[in-house]
């Protein structure tokens, strides 16, 4: 259930925007859409504006007007420079503010909940275009997967277990998590909320790919990652997928060799 103070923050913020003619709408995305919010959730807000772009000082000033801003930074690390990631106090809230020109809202990965708007401008635009959530390219994954597994195997062979566990996390985030979510008719959002979205048998498979800082555990987790990938590949792929069987065999032979 969405906490009351989340709604209070959003209501207050929409009032602030309504007094500035630059802003034409406020919408909420992420877990606000599907009702899966709780006290640990972020608030994902889309601020729709008239100008093509807004300078960073103006974005920060707006964030500061919304509450007790403790810290903020831009979202280049996730490929979204329009994003301002904010931490507010009293109450302590993580709020993502995404600043988007009205015309750019036609291209989006989800249909946000409109909180406030002028003259139905955002509702009208959303009704004339469709959201397209990006799905992973299964061929792209298959073309890389066995190289990745060989890389992880070499790290285990050398005793670099920190790097191995970090790389296993990458495989979970990039391959196993998204494909497991697709298999279960969910959007492929990495490993987000797997604990609540996946059935028990898939959760057990995912858990088996986590490793401790030792050789045996890392080898077991890597074997389990391969096993689960094969299951998911079979479950979600189409007949057009070209499996690289020679690479698969060579890498698995190598993994067997270093497991001795």
Characterize the structure shown.
- The protein has two domains: about 5-125, Beta Polymerase, domain 2 (2-Layer Sandwich); about 140-260, Four Helix Bundle (Hemerythrin (Met), subunit A).
- Helices cover about 50% and strands about 20% of the residues.
- The chain has ten helices and six strands.
- The protein has a six-stranded mixed beta sheet with strand order 3-4-5-2-1-6, sandwiched between helices.
- Strand 3 and strand 4 form a beta hairpin.
- Helix 5 (about 140-160) runs antiparallel to helix 6 (about 160-185) and helix 5 (about 140-160) packs antiparallel against helix 9 (about 215-235).
- The model has no long low-confidence stretch (mean pLDDT about 95).
Short description:
The protein has helices at 4-18, 31-34, 56-66, 121-127, 138-158, 161-183, 194-197, 200-207, 215-236, 245-258; strands spanning 23-29, 43-49, 68-75, 80-89, 93-101, 113-117. With 260 residues, it is an alpha+beta fold.
The helix/strand series, from N terminus to C terminus, equals HEHEHEEEEHHHHHHH
Total discrete domains: 2
- CATH class category name of the largest domain: Alpha Beta
Total of helices:
10
**Rounded radius of gyration (Å):** 22 Å
CATH topology of the largest domain, what is it called?
A: Beta Polymerase, domain 2
Number of strands: 6
Helix content: 40-55%
First and last CA, distance: 51 Å
How do the strands of the widest beta sheet line up side by side? 3-4-5-2-1-6
Write the SSE topology.
Layout: H1 4-18, E1 23-29, H2 31-34, E2 43-49, H3 56-66, E3 68-75, E4 80-89, E5 93-101, E6 113-117, H4 121-127, H5 138-158, H6 161-183, H7 194-197, H8 200-207, H9 215-236, H10 245-258
Parallel strand pairs: 2-5
Antiparallel strand pairs: 1-2, 1-6, 3-4, 4-5
